[in-house]
Give the backbone structure.
Amino acid sequence: MSATSPDPSWMEGILQRLSPSEREALMRFLEDLLRIRASDASSTEKLKQTANAMRGATKLWPVLREMGGILKQHAWNGRSSPTRWGMMGAAGALAVFGSQGMGIAAFGGAIGLPLWIVFGAGAALAKSMINNLRRDHD
């Protein structure tokens, strides 16, 4: 297993523990993030849109923190210093552009995961999770 490729079984374990309403909310949230990622909006506007999506998904924060923690072990620890500084800058910009109501503790995985999906290499993970959620829903 490489530094950026976690074993996919972690995702299945998390998804199986979610209630039907949490699964539906997570699927909608991930779809929103992918729409933001694909939009032609500026980076600043994408940060604002991501913050708004996160405010609408507060009941998912514990799940996002757990996922973010797992991904940090695989994605963050294997990154260079310049990449880490860029990611921290994005999190700081999110704080400036509308993070009202988000506590300091939320700046861990609960915010890092959505930013990674919108600005980083997380789109493939989001698509895979959506596919799993849809498959299990049918």
The CA atoms of residues 2 and 74 lie 8 Å apart. The chain has one domain: 9-137.
